[in-house]
Amino acid sequence: MKVVKALDEQNVEQEHTEQEQVTDKKTGYVHIKKFHFILILFFLVLLSTGITTFALSFGEEKVITVGTERSEFDKLYAAYDTLKSGYFEELDQKKLINGAIDGMVKALDDPYTDYMSVEEAENFHSSINSSFQGIGAEIQEKDGHITIVSPIKGSPAEKAGLKPNDIITSVDGKSLQGMTSSEAVTIIRGKKGTKVELTIQRPGTDAPVKVPIIRDDIPIETVYGEMVGDGIAKVQVTSFSTNTSKDLAAKLNELQKEGMKGLVLDLRQNPGGLLDEAISISSMFVPKGKLILKVEDRNGKTQEYPSQNDGNSDFPLVVLIDKGSASASEILAAAVSESAGVKLVGETSFGKGTVQTAKDFPDKSNIKFTTAKWLTPNGNWIHKKGIKPDIEVPLPEYASLPIINPDKELKLSSSSTEVESAQKMLKAIGFDPGREDGFFDEKTQAAVSSFQAANNLPADGVLKGDSTIKLMEKLREMIETNDTQLQKAVEVLKEEMK
User: Fold this and answer.
1) Is 327 known to be catalytic?
2) Number of C-alpha atoms within 13 angstroms, CB side, residue 134?
3) Per-residue pLDDT for 205 more than 90?
4) Best label site of 171, 357, 358, 400, fewest CB within 10 Å?
5) Which of 138, 158, 338, 418 is catalytic?
């Protein structure tokens, strides 16, 4: 290695110099009288003893100040010394230092700035670069709560019915109040096949619901595409990871061979990811030289990022967004909208307009912090506001129904908000319970029995376990079949393809 070699060469040169000095001394003559020599030797020993004694007596205090020369940390050092010398139990120095860093980060009151332990940092890196095991949901700390930004497509979280803006109040009975998103991720993740129970509070509902989820492998497959008829392809990008732009290009080439003449790009429930990937993908659709975004630092200095590729603005394209579209997906949506005139369909996006970077420490812990804010090509800052689509289209009302806990038994004479959700789900998929007020009567029981028989389940008229899971699964299929936002996007695209 060059560094080692340079150090070795330096040591060799130093040895040569020392040898040359010794040689010179051998050739010269130094005359010191014996008495004077003894006095000098005694003085050196005395001086050495004095320095050693001083260091032993005052060295502990000097360790704190030597090399710092930063008065703003005096209070921190004083607090550390006070605890170290006076606390009634022996302290874990590493734990105190990590706590101090974590405290500084929390004082910023920025949900996107986090100090991560070694384990948390490993989770952070794996969520971007490879597959991992867990429930498959992007979360963030928002207003003191751990909130779901978006579940990953096909994940246990999506199958359990979790949705953007759901609040996770506890995990296996342990409250998440006051935790950072990184701390919460460490608790929620776990080995494939293990069970975790989340307590979910959905905005607009009265009572929290316990949701048991079986953890599984969460592959970072981020691009899904298919032809939906009439030369139109739908491609969903679920996040922006290391290979997303490469995978999207391959998928588009594949669909073109299948006859694609127009594209619906689906960014719904896409929580974002890597900035470089957002720029690369935006460049596929934005004409070369036109702006993709601007990044503004704390001094107001702005850096512009133009499209680097031959983006084809004439390519018929419509983009789908919703309240789960955040960060990098908002960069892409804003870029194609403002710099390529592409229509946006769906709901107002999440609203994350800041840029983060991550720094690893030597012990493999990590700090992720906000470095700048990003602006749309027209200079708009969408933070906490989101991007409003050109054509606003809601999903059917049943798409936002509260989750039902499969472990809870809903039967004749039951009365609860979960019974009300079950009744609305049954009606949506074609099994009319006769009422939707939350009271489980004979008609509701008959509807449950009919549903169970149609799905090869024991027709006992009781909603629990496999019956509840199957009901929510069928509702999800219904939402996909009756996707009003996709239907509108296809309609708009057909107009542009004429």
Assistant:
1) yes
2) 23
3) no
4) 357
5) 338
Using DSSP, state whether 391 is helix, strand or coil.
strand
Neighbours of 100 (CB within 10 A): 14
| CATH class entry, domain 223-392 | alpha beta
Tell me 397's DSSP state.
G
Annotation marks residue 352 as catalytic: yes
Does the annotation mark 338 as catalytic?
Answer: yes
pLDDT class of 183 with cuts at 50, 70, 90: confident
From edge to edge, which strands make up the β-sheet containing 317-321? 223-229, 232-237, 262-266, 317-321, 343-346, 391-392
Chain segment 20-56, per-residue pLDDT in tens: 333 333 333 334 444 443 333 333 333 333 333 333 3
Q: Pseudo-torsion of CA 130, 136, 138, 140, nearest 10°?
A: -110
Residue 313 confidence (pLDDT): 59
The one catalytic residue in 155, 327, 365, 414 is 327
Phi, psi of 114, deg, nearest 5 = -145, 140
* Among the listed residues 274, 424, 399, the one whose alpha carbon sits nearest the alpha carbon of residue 347: 399
Adjacent-strand bridge partners of 217: 133
- Output the pLDDT for position 17: 32
Element (H, E) at 179: none
29 against 484, higher pLDDT = 484
Model confidence over 63-79: pLDDT tens digits?
334 345 788 899 999 99
Residue 232 phi/psi, 5-degree rounding, is -105, 135
Selecting from 3.30.300.20, 3.40.1090.10, 1.10.101.10, 1.20.120.80, what CATH number does the domain 398-482 have? Answer: 1.10.101.10
444 token code pair = 């509701």
The mean pLDDT value for 236-241 works out to 92
Strands, E assignment, 114-163: 114-116, 132-134, 137-142, 145-151
The set of residues, in sequence order, having a beta carbon less than 8 Å from that of 213 and lying 6+ positions away, is 135, 156, 157, 160, 195, 196, 197, 198
Which residue of the set 153, 294, 352, 474 is catalytic?
352
Q: Check whether 368 has a pLDDT greater than 50.
A: yes
CA atoms of 104 and 367, how far apart (whole Å): 11
Alpha-carbon gap, residue 322 to 83, rounded angstroms: 50
More confident residue, 378 or 12: 378
**Dist CA 433 CA 450 (whole Å):** 10
Whole-number pLDDT of residue 51: 33
Say which CATH architecture domain 134-219 belongs to: Roll (2.30)
